[in-house]
Structure formats: C-alpha cells, structure tokens
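Predict the assembly for these two chains.
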Amino acid sequence: MSASVPPGGFAAPKGIPEYVGPEFTTVRDTLIREADRAGYAHIELPVFEDTALYARGVGESTDVVSKEMYSFDDRGGRSVTLRPEGTAGVVRSVIEHGLDKGGLPVKLRYDGPFFRYERPQAGRFRQLQQVGVEAIGVDDPALDAEVLAVADAGFRALGLRGYRLEITSLGDATTRPQYRTELTRFLEKLDLDEATRERARINPLRVLDDKRPEVRAQLDGAPLMVDHLSDEAAAHHAAVKRHLDDLGVAYVENPWMVRGLDYYTKTTFEFVHDGLGSQSGIGGGGRYDGLMAELGGQALSGVGFGLGVDRTLLACRVEEAGHDAAGRVEVFGVPLGDAAKDRLVGIVGALRRAGIRADLAYGNRGLKGAMKAADRSGARFALVLGDRDLEAGEIQLKDLADGSQAAIALDGAAAAVDRALQDG
RNA sequence: GUGGGUGUAGCUCAGUUGGCAGAGCACUGGGUUGUGAUCCCAGGUGUCGCGGGUUCAAGUCCCGUCACUCACCCCA
C-alpha cells in the first residue's frame, strides 16, 4: 500500500489538543504539587489495559464503557482499551503488586493522557489530560477531606477564583437499593422520552442531573439520596463537612449531583467553573467502597479525584491566571561577524553549563535582526560581541529592560553574567 | 450518536447583483554597515477545505463530502 499525503496535509487526529510551550506543563504540575506535599507517591501506569478491567471497574451501564471507549484487539487477539479514567488502573496495580499488604492507606498520584471517543466540543477532547490521586485502604472522613483539600489547593495555587466545590453523599450499599427503588417508582410516573426512560431503567440516578428544562421541571420533589443515608453514611458525610470547615475549604452541597462512573459511594464531589461554557466540570471524584473487591482484591475502601488539566488550562485563560511571564531564555547572544560568533557559541555553552537559560542569533542575521530576536526571546540581557570588542577583550552586556549597556571582560564573561542576573 | 454555525495568507478576518485574490497583525530586509521593544519604506507566500455541477466566467450559485466549532447527550 502506498501512503499519500492527504489533501490539506496531515492533521492530528480529531479532538486531540496539542500544547506548545510551558503553559500546559505549568498548569499540570502546579495542579498536582500539593499531592506530593501530602505524601502521595507518583505511579506511572499503562496507557491501555485489558478491556474487561474497565467494563468491570467503571461499570457496564455507564456511557463511558458502553459507547466511549477506544477498544481494539492487539496482534495477539487480546481486547485492550485506551484508559478512559485513572482509578481502575491504579486499583488494579495496587492489587496486582500487593501494595495494600503494607501500611494503609496507600497514597498514589498520577498524571497523563486519557481517552474517550466522544464528539469534541469546547473543553471536551478525545485525548484528555488528567492529574489524580487515590488513597486506598482506610475509610476515614478525614481522608476524604484531605483529598478534597489537595485538589482545592491545586486550583488555588494557579490563582483560580471562579470555581466552586460541590459535594454530596451517594450513600452506601445498606440503603442505596431501597432509595433506588423509590426513585425508580418516582421516575416511572414522569413523561419522559424513550432514551431517558431507558436511562432511568439502567441507572435512575443519572436522570437527576439532566439539564433539559422540560425534564428538570418534572424532577421537582424527586427523592434525594442525601435524605436516605444510613446512619453511618450520614455520620461520615457530616464529618467530612466538619473537616472541610477546619481546613478552610469552601464547598456547597448539591444533592442532585450524580457521577458518571458506577463505583462511587458516600462522599462524591465535583469542581465546577462557570466560565467554560457547557463543559464546566474541571475536576471530580469521591469515595468508592466496592471497587477493590470488584476487581478481585480485598474489600478495602478508597477515595480519590481526577482533575482535568485541559479544562483547568481553559479556566486559567478565562481568569488570566496561572501564567508566568518568564521569558524563553535569560540571556541572548548577538554576534557581529564570524569571529564573534565562534566566541559567543562558547560563551552561551558556558552559560548553559552554569544553569543559565541562554540562546543566540543563528543564521548570520544583521545586527538589527539579531537584536529583534533578542527582544523576542524574552531575555533579560543581550550579549553583543563584534570585532571592536574582541580586539579590546570585552563584550557588551545590555540590559534589555532599561536599554543600559556596559562592557565587561571577555574572560570570565559567563560568571559576570551570572552575577548580573543574581543582582537583577 | 443528534442538531446549529463556520471553512479565503502563519494568525484575525473583509471580499457587493458571479467579472484580475484583499486588509490588519506577524514574518524578512532596509531607512540607521555597532543596537531591540516606537516610527517610515520595501518584500513574499494562497491547491479560496476537498470533489463534482451550472456558466463565456465561480471565493461568490447548486449538489456531495471532509474538517473545525458550539450546543444536546455525556463527562475531566
């Protein structure tokens, strides 16, 4: 087969954003930094797993599993799936390597790309980037609060203000079946379209967060999970809120909130930003009591979150937050002629070895063009070198912010530049 | 998966009843042969998303198709 360049040239696959420059990396790393401070160890996970892991872990009835997975057979005939979320993979790894046989909780953090085959729109991508944490093995409301505080700290570290944390409790296995029956009975009496009726049959809770006004209107007076909690779940929920108050984490209760993944119990939450259009969730998560056992491990509880890096970056742009004005380099070399360039190549190398970010004007540009490039690089200083300076054994150090310029000795120029940067 | 909008220069976009393909920004060079961010001058680039059709003539009208985009659904 002879591959050809498509009309209009090659393009990235549909729905996949690409990020050039430091903006993305800064947002991602800042979001998860607090997890490191709270003792969560980094775990690097496979980008694809056995399809059955997600079918069983995330839940067959979820849209994510039933119609959004990138699944395919590998060359050995095994069905594998590009990971649509992080928790199932973390839990699988914990079980496989017996991490839950040591001290509990097991605290892990991860970051990277996830994949869902959806129709792209603002803030919704087929390859999405997330950071996340999981704390497995201890069912303690204080741990729920810690996880929430770690996520909140990530958003705050970026300077974001226009978001809110919504929380609720999805209860536990002792009362959820009764509640579900009651809700189903309520939904059966409503006038709903076929697709929604089907959804009500498969997962009635999902109907509660329908956005359509004609559906919303009918949901008035629907039974809510928070009114049907077991004593233990209610106590857990109250304790989480108390801890959040102590930690100074602001939240609002949203008893209508539902999660799209089946494994959540008790504490459930979502971070919502109002400046992003339709896809307003910038992070979410909660506690999962049954997942470890469901995937063949001990019956241990866990709690975690996933934060959307793509959407958080959009939020930063909306709020004009999170950007650092740091230039591409700190020092930029401007050579006049070949002899000067020979010498500057060495000086730039010495600067880099000293840990200073440095670049120079390549391509034998004119002085004006080279200065322009220096300006554009964002450098604090330009190093201008010509024949006249070489003869005098000097090099011109120009401060690009105020335009001042001074000659410094060519020998040991790198060290002198280092000192100038420290002073500045 | 469903519905709406948009595809013209690297970017943002104009392009009239069908009649030579345009502007601003950006980029490169020069004004100023040793000085950037201001100013002035000059320069270049287009499969007008793609494929058909109508016409003497299509960026413009018709059909198809693809892509992007927004919303529903769903979710980070």
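The mean pLDDT of chain A is 90. DSSP finds 15 helices and 16 strands in chain A.
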